[in-house]
Design brief:
About 35% of the residues lie in helices and about 5% in strands. The protein is mainly alpha-helical and about 80 residues long. The protein has two domains: about 30 residues, no CATH class; about 40 residues, Ribosomal Protein S14/S29 (30s Ribosomal Protein S14, Chain N), CATH 4.10.830. Strands 1-2 form a two-stranded antiparallel ribbon. It is elongated and about 55 Å long. It starts with a helix and ends in a 10-residue tail after the last helix.
Length: about 80
């Protein structure tokens, strides 16, 4: 179950407290200590294709959007 999907269901069950409590007990995402899901993009929250070098903490899609603004140049 993805992080965003969990949030959507959480909003839907706010009006039903008993079902919400049961859902949270059995379906809450794990607190990760290692692996790909420990690092999230600062800008959009994605976990895949994460660029950690130079302390960027961005996914590759966000990096492409703002690379020229933060001083990176594209070489052909």
């Amino acid at each position: 179950m993805s992080y965003s999907h969990y949030s959507k269901v959480f909003k839907q069950l706010e009006s039903k407290p008993n079902k919400l409590k049961k859902y949270v007990k059995h379906n809450a995402p794990k607190d990760r200590t290692t692996g790909i899901n420990t690092k999230r993009c600062r800008r959009c929250g994605r976990t895949g294709a994460h660029i950690d070098k130079y302390g960027l903490d961005l996914c590759r899609q966000c990096f492409r959007d703002i690379a020229t603004k933060i001083g990176f140049k594209k070489y052909n």
